[in-house]
Write the structure tokens for this entry.
Amino acid sequence: MKRRTFMQRAGLSGLGLAITNSLLACNTNESKEKATVAAATKTAEGPMVISTWNVPNANNKAWEVLAAGGNALDAVEQGVKVEEADTKNQSVGKGGRPDRDGRVTLDACIMDHQGNYGAVMCVQNYTHVISIARKVMEDTPHVILAGAGAEQFAAAQGFEAEDLLTEATKKDWEKWKETSDYKPVINIENHDTIGMLAIDAEGNISGACTTSGLAYKMAGRVGDSPVIGSGLFVDNEVGACTATGMGEEVLKTVGSFLVVELMRHGKSPQEACEEAIRRIVKDNPRAKDVQVGFIAINKAGETGAYCIHPGFQYIVNRSEKTELFDGKAAIG
Ligand code: SD4
């Protein structure tokens, strides 16, 4: 055999062997992964809903939808709309704190059990951005609309435009402008973004996340909340996660996707949230000054929650009774 032919054959048969081996390895990994997912996915005993922060009215609304046999997608949309309309919640919807220039700009996203996702970013003058995000998901070929385009789409869909800056938030902003000292303090000025996850009677999972973002942010700033995999992620085979707190830190670790992926590989929701917070905190000098909190559920309806600093709360309904919990914290 000529040297060249020999080398080609040797190379090819080596390659063939390598491909066969890696296919075998793939199959073994695949079946291992299936086993892990199967172990973690006994279906939840009944519907449930969990949200970031102390938002009983939103959770109760979502529960009402689930208890009436509604699906998880409708439950999370209806639930978070309660906070969007509540002007006392200054981190979400109408009454949300504005950017440095006095403009209230909202971000939201929604994800269903089939992996569909829709989001809007930096939207002015529309309260129910979660419903606009759902329309993006269901009625457009896209997944994200931002700024003026999102507002144009909302108007075309018949959403009512309104001024989102209330007298109270305007007063706070004017006071802030006196010093204009831009120091975001999460847990004080950025408290109460709502991330909500629900499982319906069919065992299907959906999630929603809606916020006005960091108070007095730079114009155009978008955080984690509307970004798939960061502020929210749903994998109906495994579970779901949503985040609150300093969006920049969540974005850099793709936090919610990470939590769900860790659950896929066998971690409980609690272990997965703890690992995701550890990734943010590790070798991070900013960690002492920022808050991030994750909540997660798996297919079995088990929950997890973890944050960087104490003060984070989350709320659960497995019946019409709402239960409020303090999230465990990594520091302090
Ligand atoms: C953001 N994650 O825009 C949001 C803020 C937040 O409770 O969660 N506040 O970064």
Q: What stands out?
A: The mean pLDDT is 88. The first helix runs from residue 3 to 40.
